[in-house]
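Recall that a protein's primary structure is simply its ordered list of amino acids. Everything else, from secondary elements to tertiary packing, is in principle encoded there. The following example makes that idea concrete.
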Amino acid sequence: SEGRGSPSWSHDTLPEDVKLGRLSVARAPAHVLDKALIEAISTMDFALYNLTSLSDVLAAIKSGTISGETFTRVDSPLQNLALYKDLLTNGWVGDGTTKVPANPSGTELLLAVFLGSAADKTIPITADTVTAVDTILQVSLPNNVTAAKLAADADAVRLAILAAHEGE
């Protein structure tokens, strides 16, 4: 029965020497991720998650504003990984009334924002990081998204968050 023995992903091989840091919360049981997803969606400020370019997202994170208005970014690693998993599972995230991405071309950008926001500010995100998180969460990237591209974009998000925190 569930809850006994090894988790389903424990028999899969994770990349060697990958440092997960805050991303290790991906190991949380499904019901914990489900609760985090509900909390994240209920408090999401969709302004950031509706931006359509990585450069716009990075600028917003660094400045803390979008078009002069402040916004709230989901910071919790558990909530961000729940959003990441939900996006990969359903193709969108939201409450049914409001959802992102507005179009499928925004999927990779959102994945990068969720993964970069979930990660430690000081541990680089690599393709192996993406592979390890996806293995633990039992999800797969869409065919048009590579682990290397997602890692590069998520790492850019991580660095923007680090820069914003250092500027406080």
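The mean pLDDT is 89. The chain has one domain: 25-165.
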